[in-house]
Design brief:
404 residues; alpha/beta; Archaeosine Trna-guanine Transglycosylase, Chain: A, domain 4; Transcription Regulator spoIIAA; Rossmann fold; 3 domains; seven-stranded mixed sheet; 20 strands; 28% strand; binds S-adenosyl-L-homocysteine
Length: 404
C-alpha cells in the first residue's frame, strides 16, 4: 500500500516526526491491513519512508524507516511493499540500535532497571521494552506493533540474552488481580523481583504493577530527592505508587515520610522496599486515599512538611482535556504549597504529553499557588534511556520542577 500525505505532514515527517494522522492523508493506492508496512510519499511523490499502517487509529501510520537519502528515481520501484521478513529485519535492527544506545549509560553494580527501547523516541513505533535485571518486559502501543511482537520476539530475545536477560515478557490486558504479563521467550519469572537504581533497592511488581512494573523515567529524579531530603525531617509523597520517592527521601535522612496513593497494593511493595534498604518503617506512614482529599484534611489539621513531592498520573490524556488538566494541576499545587513549612521544597511533576513545560510552570506561578515567595530552583525531564526526537515534543512528556 502507498500512502500519500499533504505538504505540511510531509515536511514534519521529513524532520523526523514519527506519525501520519489520518486527516493528513491525501490518497492511498492499494489496500492495507493493520500492521502492514506501507510506503509513505509526499504530495509530489517525494520518497519519505516506511511506516506501519493502522486501519482504525487516528494515527494511521507510524514511521519505522526514513529513506530521504535515496535518489528520487526510486519513487516507482520503491513503492513495492517490502517482504514481511524484511520488515521484521528492519524492526529488529532498530531494537539492536536502541540497545546499543544504552551501552555505557549504567553501572550494573548500581542500576539494573532501565528502558531498553523507548518506542517512537528510538524510532521503533509503539514498542517499549523495560529491563528489570534478567527480565525484560515489552509493552506495545497501538495495534500495528501488536501484530509484530510475537514474530519479533525470538530475535529480540537473542539480542537480550547476549546482555544477560533470560526472560522476555509482554504486557497483556487482564482482570484485576490477574497476571498482566505473558512470556514471549524464556521462563516466567517470579511475580516480583528486586532491582537497583543508583544503589537503592526497589521491589518491582512485574506481574501486577502499573506500566511495565515501575516508572523508570523518574530514576534520576528519585536520586535527586534523596539529596534534597538531607536535613528535611517531614516528607509528603503524593501519588507514591511503589514508594520510589519515599525510599529515596528516607535514605536521604527524612524520618517521617508520608506516602499517599489510591492503590493500596502498591503500599505493600513500598514497605518491603523500605526494609530491603535497611530502613525501619517506624515514623513512616502509608495512606490509601485520594490525594486531593488527603490534602484537604491535612490543611484542616494544619500539617506541615519540609518537602512535598507530587507525581500524579496524566491529567490530560488528549488535547481536549488540557484545560481541565491545567486547572487540576493548579489546584493540586496550591494545596501542596499550603502545607510547606518555612524553607520547605515542593517537587511538582507531570507526565502529561499534552502539557508543555511552560504551560506546566503556569500551574506553579504566584496566582496558581496563592503565594509570592517561592521560586523555581530546578527543572528536569526523563534520563537518557528515554530518548526523544527533536521534532516530536509529545515525547518530552516528563516534567519535574523543584520550587523553594
Ligand atoms: N511517583 C511514582 C509514580 C506515580 S504514578 C513513582 O516514582 O514510581 C501515579 C500514581 O497515582 C499511581 O500509583 C496511582 O495509583 C495513583 N493515583 C491515581 N489517582 C490518584 C488519586 N486521585 N489519589 C491518589 N493516588 C492516585
Amino acid at each position: 500500500m502507498i500512502v500519500t500525505v499533504e505538504a505540511g505532514a510531509a515536511s514534519a515527517l521529513m524532520r523526523g516526526h514519527p506519525w501520519v494522522f489520518r486527516e493528513a492523508i491525501r490518497g492511498t493506492r492499494g489496500k492495507g491491513k493493520t500492521g502492514d508496512a506501507v510506503r509513505v510519499l509526499g504530495p509530489k511523490n517525494e520518497l519519505i519512508g516506511w511506516g506501519l499502517y493502522d486501519r482504525d487509529s487516528p494515527i494511521a501510520v507510524r514511521m519505522y524507516g526514513w529513506d530521504r537519502a535515496k535518489p528520487q528515481e526510486l519513487v516507482a520501484s520503491g513503492a513495492e511493499p517490502p517482504h514481511p521478513k524484511a520488515v521484521e529485519e528492519s524492526l529488529v535492527r532498530l531494537v539492536k540500535a536502541a540497545i546499543a544506545r544504552r551501552s555505557g549509560l549504567f553501572d550494573s553494580s548500581k542500576t539494573t532497571a532501565y528502558r531498553l527501547c523507548n518506542g517512537e523516541g528510538d524510532r521503533i513505533p509503539g514498542l517499549v521494552i523495560d529491563r528489570y535485571g534478567a527480565v525484560a518486559v515489552a509493552r506495545t502501543d497501538g495495534d500495528a506493533m501488536g501484530t509484530w511482537i510475537d514474530k519479533l520476539a525470538p530475535s529480540i530475545a537473542r539480542l537480550l540474552s547476549a546482555d544477560g536477560i533470560s526472560s522476555l515478557l509482554a504486557r497483556v490486558e487482564a482482570e484485576a488481580n490477574e497476571r498482566k504479563v505473558r512470556s514471549l521467550s524464556g521462563e516466567m519469572p517470579a511475580d516480583t523481583l528486586d532491582v537497583l537504581e543508583h544503589g537503592m533497592t526497589f521491589e518491582v511488581d512485574i506481574a501486577r504493577g502499573q506500566k511495565t512494573g515501575a516508572f523508570l523515567d523518574q530514576r534520576d529524579n528519585r536520586r535527586h530527592v534523596r539529596e534534597l531530603a538531607k536535613g528535611r525531617r517531614r516528607v509528603l509523597n503524593l501519588f507514591s505508587y511503589a514508594g520510589g520517592f519515599s525510599v529515596a527521601a528516607a535514605l536521604g535522612g527524612a524520618t517521617e515520610v508520608t506516602s499517599v496513593d489510591a492503590a493500596t497494593r502498591a503500599h505493600g511493595t513500598a514497605q518491603r522496599s523500605f526494609k530491603k534498604n535497611g530502613l525501619s518503617l517506624e515514623g513512616h506512614q502509608f495512606v490509601s486515599a485520594d490525594a486531593f482529599v488527603f490534602l484537604e484534611n491535612a490543611a484542616k489539621r494544619k500539617d506541615r512538611y519540609d518537602l512535598v513531592i507530587s507525581d500524579p498520573p496524566s491529567f490530560a490524556p488528549n488535547e481536549r482535556s488540557k484545560r481541565g488538566a491545567l486547572a487540576a494541576y493548579a489546584r493540586l499545587h496550591r494545596a501542596c504549597a499550603a502545607l510547606l513549612a518555612d524553607g520547605a521544597l515542593l517537587c511538582a511533576s507531570s507526565c502529561s504529553s499534552h502539557v508543555g513545560m511552560e504551560e506546566f510552570l503556569g500551574t506553579l506561578d504566584d496566582t496558581a499557588l496563592g503565594r509570592s515567595d517561592l521560586t523555581v530552583l530546578e527543572s528536569f525531564g526523563a534520563p537518557a534511556d528515554h530518548p526523544t526526537l527533536a521534532c516530536f515534543p509529545e515525547g518530552r512528556y516528563l516534567k519535574f520542577v523543584v520550587m523553594g
